[in-house]
């Protein structure tokens, strides 16, 4: 995808657009999709042309907010837009994205890329065949806090990632591994930069029909180890990454927006505060930049597939024989 990207629909009607403006749309206007629509409308690289939702009143309302056309079938976008955000349920990712990729439309698809590795591979193949951008919405990659941590980390040997929060009753049909932990799977794969050698995991359903908390141990081919903790039934909110590097320990608090480090054998702790940012705005701007400049996105389909593959391995490990993992129930409540 690094070569041969083209804007298949650029030759169509551009009347009413500023030079270089990208015609965009959003498919799926639920809680997060409405934020995508807002960011497309606010970005100077784009013109939000249309929004799509099966709920006609929702499509009409969001379209009216941003001066866009309301549509009720994603296929009606073909010929109208150059690029889209897809924020429909994961089970629909393959069908919706496949139709639009085949039509030569650039796609930003929310995480996870698809509901199976096979479906993800098919989307990657179809994007390559069409010569268009396929970006996966792993939004934490665009966090300036993670950016500071990734630049500071030299050779991560042990990484501990915690993503927990109180019960909200949302996305209960989705396992916590695909709902929350997949963010940190993507981040640790980017940090360590080595294939995963083995996976052990435990988890359980407490309030939902799917797993509400999970703990995974990943061992990498380069000798690094990662512990991932995810819970949606915790007694507090926490999103932290702790990295043991040769000679020092680094801690990124994604919620508090700080990165700190302490040298081994020293009590001196250094900390920097990272200014506030809108990570979704940064993600969408990066996507539009990849479309405009015809280069590969920061989080491409292959990155999305790697994260999904590890998530599948964790889910299978939870269903299998109980591993010899020690897991503290601290922060987990029923």
| Approximate strand percentage | 25-35%
Order of helices and strands: EHEHEEHEHEHEHEEEEEEEHH
Bulk shape: globular
> What is the CATH T-level topology of the largest domain?
Dihydrodipicolinate Reductase, domain 2
User: What's the average pLDDT?
Assistant: 91
Strand order of the largest sheet: 8-9-10-7-11-12-13-14
Q: Provide the CATH architecture of the largest domain.
A: 2-Layer Sandwich
What distance lies between the first and last C-alpha atoms, to the nearest angstrom? 46 Å
Return the structural class. alpha/beta
Domain GFO/IDH/MocA-like oxidoreductase: 167-243
Domain Gfo/Idh/MocA-like oxidoreductase N-terminal: 22-138
InterPro entries: Gfo/Idh/MocA-like_OxRdtase_N, Gfo/Idh/MocA_Oxidoreductases, GFO_IDH_MocA-like_dom, NAD(P)-bd_dom_sf
GO molecular function: nucleotide binding
Descriptive account of the structure:
By secondary structure, this protein is an alpha/beta fold. The protein has two domains: about 20-135, Rossmann fold (3-Layer(aba) Sandwich), CATH 3.40.50; about 140-275 and about 310-320, Dihydrodipicolinate Reductase, domain 2 (2-Layer Sandwich), CATH 3.30.360. Helix content is about 30%, strand content about 25%. It has eight helices and 14 strands. It has helices at about 30-40, 55-65, 95-100, 115-130, 145-150, 175-190, 280-295, 300-320, and strands spanning about 20-25, 45-50, 70, 85, 105-110, 135, 160-165, 195-205, 215-220, 225-230, 240-245, 250-255, 260-265, 270-275. It has an eight-stranded mixed beta sheet, covered by helices on one side. A six-stranded parallel beta sheet has the order 3-2-1-4-5-6, sandwiched between helices. Helix 1 packs across helix 7, helix 3 (about 95-100) runs parallel beside helix 4 and helix 6 (about 175-190) crosses helix 8. The radius of gyration is 20 Å and the shape is globular. Residues about 1-15 and about 325-334 have low confidence and may be disordered. It holds the Pfam family GFO_IDH_MocA. GO terms for molecular function: nucleotide binding. InterPro entries: Gfo/Idh/MocA-like_OxRdtase_N, Gfo/Idh/MocA_Oxidoreductases, GFO_IDH_MocA-like_dom, NAD(P)-bd_dom_sf.
């Amino acid at each position: 995808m690094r070569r041969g990207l083209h804007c298949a629909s650029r030759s169509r009607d551009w009347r009413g657009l500023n030079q270089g403006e990208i015609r965009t749309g959003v498919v799926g206007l639920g809680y997060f999709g409405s934020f995508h629509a807002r960011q497309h409308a606010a970005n100077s690289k784009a013109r939000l042309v249309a929004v799509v939702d099966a709920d006609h009143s929702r499509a009409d309302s969001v379209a009216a907010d941003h001066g866009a056309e309301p549509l009720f079938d994603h296929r009606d976008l073909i010929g109208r837009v150059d690029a889209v955000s897809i924020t429909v349920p994961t089970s629909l990712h393959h069908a919706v994205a496949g139709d639009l990729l085949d039509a030569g439309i650039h796609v930003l698809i929310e995480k996870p890329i698809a509901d199976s590795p096979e479906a993800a591979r098919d989307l990657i193949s179809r994007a390559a065949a069409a010569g268009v951008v396929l970006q996966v919405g792993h939004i934490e990659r665009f966090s300036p806090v993670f950016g500071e941590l990734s630049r500071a980390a030299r050779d991560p040997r042990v990484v501990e990632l915690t993503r927990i929060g109180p019960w909200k009753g949302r996305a209960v049909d989705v396992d916590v591994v695909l709902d929350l932990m997949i963010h940190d799977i993507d981040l640790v794969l980017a940090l360590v930069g080595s294939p995963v050698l083995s996976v052990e995991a435990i988890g359980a359903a407490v309030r939902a029909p799917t797993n509400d908390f999970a703990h995974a141990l990943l061992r990498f081919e380069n000798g690094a180890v990662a512990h991932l903790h995810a819970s949606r039934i915790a007694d507090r909110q926490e999103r932290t990454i702790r990295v043991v590097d040769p000679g020092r320990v680094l801690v990124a608090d994604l919620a508090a927006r700080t990165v700190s480090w302490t040298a081994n054998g020293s009590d001196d702790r250094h900390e920097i505060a990272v200014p506030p940012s809108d990570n979704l705005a940064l993600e969408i701007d990066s996507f539009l930049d990849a479309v405009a400049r015809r280069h590969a996105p920061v989080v491409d389909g292959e990155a999305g597939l790697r994260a999904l593959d590890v998530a599948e391995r964790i889910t299978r490990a939870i269903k299998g024989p109980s591993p010899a993992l020690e897991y503290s129930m601290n922060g987990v409540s029923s």
